[in-house]
Design brief:
The protein has about 150 residues and is an alpha+beta fold. It is about 25% helix and about 25% strand. It has one domain (about 30-150). It has helices at about 5-20, 30-45, 50-55, 70-75; strands at about 45-50, 60-65, 95-105, 105-115, 120, 130, 135-140, 150. Strand 7 and strand 8 (about 150) form a beta hairpin.
Amino acid sequence: MPKVPVLALTVSAAVGLLLTGCGSDPAPDLDETVLAAVDAAGDADGELDLISTTHFDWQKAVIVCPGDDTTEVAQAAGTTDGPVQGELPETVDVGTGYLVFVNDNQVTQTAELRLARADVCSQELPVADRVLSPGTALRVEPGTGDGWVVTAG
């Protein structure tokens, strides 16, 4: 049986751990994190605080609904310096809404939400009225089936 130097085994093991993420749990998916927070808020007092749900910097969040004009979303999410920069979600899926998080006029994160589970689009509001600041609480109430209706304020 050939002898393998200890250093080669050590390097091999270290590379294997790096490739598998050192055995640690992966970071939670933002979609699932938001949905879990919606479920918890609905089961509790009905108030969802996005600050305690998200663990990254953001200055505003925009509720994006099916059929929204992405130019209008970019304007509403932007600043006086211009529309927000970065990738905005496609709004063609009638069963999906989004929370688009913005920091320094850049899209930083987007949570994709199935409306059957967390209907953030039940209120027919202009996009400009669906811009949330970090202090805005969302209201979570029972919807149809097993879903929730999520509204601002």
